Write the structure tokens for this entry.
Amino acid sequence: MSDPGPAAPQMATATTAALDAPAAPRRRLVDGADLPVLPDCCNLGTVARVLGPLNLGVVLLAWLLPGEESAAWPVLETALRVNAVGAASLLLLCPLRRAVNGSPRRVQWGVGLGVPALLAALAALASAPLPGSTPLAVLGWLAPRALLAAAVAWLLIEYLRLRQLSLQPSQAEGRLQALQARIRPHFLFNSLNTVLGLMRSDPRKAERTLENLADLFRVFMKDSRELVPLDDEVLLCKEYLTIEKLRLAERLEVRWALDDMPGDALLPSLLLQPLIENAVHHGIEPSQEPGEIRVAIARNGDRVRVEIINPLPDSPPTRPGNHMALSNVRERLDLTFDVEGQLETASDDGQFRVTVHFPYRKERRRRDVRRTFDPDR
């Protein structure tokens, strides 16, 4: 037997090193990664955009068939079968999307087309008698059905992917508008004046105020497409209100209702702070009387509800607001959660109410913000 020589140990060493090497981290969208092939199948908007065209296609096909064939074609049975395959595909692709995101595109396409094709074949086997007993005959009967399901899946995936691409300029524009709406020169000017007034009377409080201001602007400069835990967002709002409390003194009171708040729920960064700032700017500043802002956050099933209530001024403002903060938040909810994110406003009994609903998507590691809340802030 021939001697393998020194090349064999080197090859074994190289193979072991390759196996032990850590996998390259997957890039995020904000770092320049490509859009995933598979849409967010967990989103209700995606479900509606998939099942709607499928049912419309069945109805159109029944309408286009000649009269005799249309009467003999089982429309209801076909619609039920198509909906079953479509719903089951979405249910399976919901967790599979997270598993294959960042994988080579051929793998993502393989999963996106293979799952509907496999489910269509299984549905055909379960609902119709086999045309023959030989494997070749069964395969020839199943192949067209599986290929048709894969073709329809390709059309829907491509449509949703192109739709997502078309939203990218809108998303970038929304980011710029969000930054312009949040980084308000009058807020910075008032905060710095507050710090200057505290420098001699209470230097320690002035230092804490500058730290809060630095934290705020550090978050302002971050990419607003990133999802952050709800507890971080609420802490940021409290830091903002701490600065405003120094400026408005007894005129500003805040009541928090956070006992049922899911601190690990994910939402876009700086989603709530503009709403809090809006409540201070339009509800507290115009009045010389003390006013209270109420913030209640709770989980309701698989959704999170945020309610912000501020008093309305006795007289209407001379210059009405342009609702930039509300429009901005509503647009970001739509871009992030599609139809599952909602913002509602109402005015009654001298109170202005903003209600935000979004799906409960939690981060992997739970951090309870209530343990770090300072009730006196």
Observations:
- Strands lie at 227-229, 252-257, 266-268, 291-300, 303-311, 342-348, 351-359.
- The two ends are 81 Å apart (CA to CA).
